[in-house]
Structure formats: structure tokens, C-alpha cells
Amino acid sequence: MIDKGKIIVYIKCKVKNLDRRGMKIEDRIQLSELLAEYGMLLTEKQRDVTRLYCDCDMSFGEVSMEYGISRQAVLDILKRAASQLEHYEEVLGNLKLKTALVKALASVRDGDNVEENLNLMEKLLEE
Predict the structure, then answer these.
(1) Quick check: 35 and 45 in contact, CB under 8 A?
(2) How far apart are CA 74 and CA 19, in angstroms?
(3) Angle 46-3-124 (CA atoms, 0-180°, nearest 5)?
(4) pLDDT digits (tens, 9 = 90+) for 15-54
């Protein structure tokens, strides 16, 4: 997600970092970015559980109470959703492309290597 010219640095979310203790904030942000880009490809329940966990900062217990499922079920849903989202990014590469375009655009705005960055943006859009 691109917000008010901020440059979002895409770093692959690490599903293996998702365990009973939860995720680091950086991984939650990355998962949230993937969810914003590819969330419509998940099931409604995966999307909602992931959104509550990442965007609403709810714990496994809070999400489990919301849906009437166990904390383990929440963890399983999150792992499955994160794995699918990573796969979509691997195959489609939308976030990687957006990140590269935003960086190049920021450089153009700053007046750094304008011609080179415009060529880079053109090349990225052709791929």
C-alpha cells in the first residue's frame, strides 16, 4: 500500500516467525501490506482473521473469542493466509514493483538521476 508518498520497503514476510508468541511488529506490517495487496484472494475468514491480528493488533486470544475458535485455529489460519500471500507476491510481484516505482519516482522528485530513473520506471512497467 502506498500512502502519501511514503516509500514502503518490501521485505518478504517470514511465516516461520509466526508462532504461539505472535510476530514481530515488522513482520505484522509486512503481512498487513501483503494483505492490502492480495487480501481479496484469500477466503473471507482468512482475510478477516489476518486483518484483526495485523491491522487491529488483536492477540490470538482476542481473535479466537471474536470467532469462537481456539487460539491454535487462529494460528493455523494466520500461517495458511501468510503462506498464500507470500506465494501470490512471489508469483505476481505487485509489491516489489510498486516499491521500485515509488523509489524511482522519489528520486525523480528529488532531481537525482532523472533520466536514469525515468528509464528504470519505463522498464519496470514494461515487464
Answers:
(1) no
(2) 11
(3) 90
(4) 555 655 677 888 888 999 999 999 999 999 999 999 999 9
Cβ 67 vs Cβ 49: under 8 Å:
yes
User: Global pTM?
Assistant: 0.72
Contact (Cβ atoms closer than 8 angstroms) between residue 74 and residue 60: yes
- Cα–Cα distances in angstroms (integers) from residue 66 to residues 19, 32, 39, 96, in the given order: 20, 19, 20, 33
Question: Residue 73 corresponds to which cell in the numbers above?
Answer: 485455529
Rounded CA-CA distance 45/48 in Å is 5
Q: Taking the mean position of all CA atoms in its chain, how far away is CA 25?
A: 12
CA 106 to chain centre: 21
For 46-87, write each residue's pLDDT tens digit: 999 999 999 998 999 999 999 999 999 999 999 999 999 999
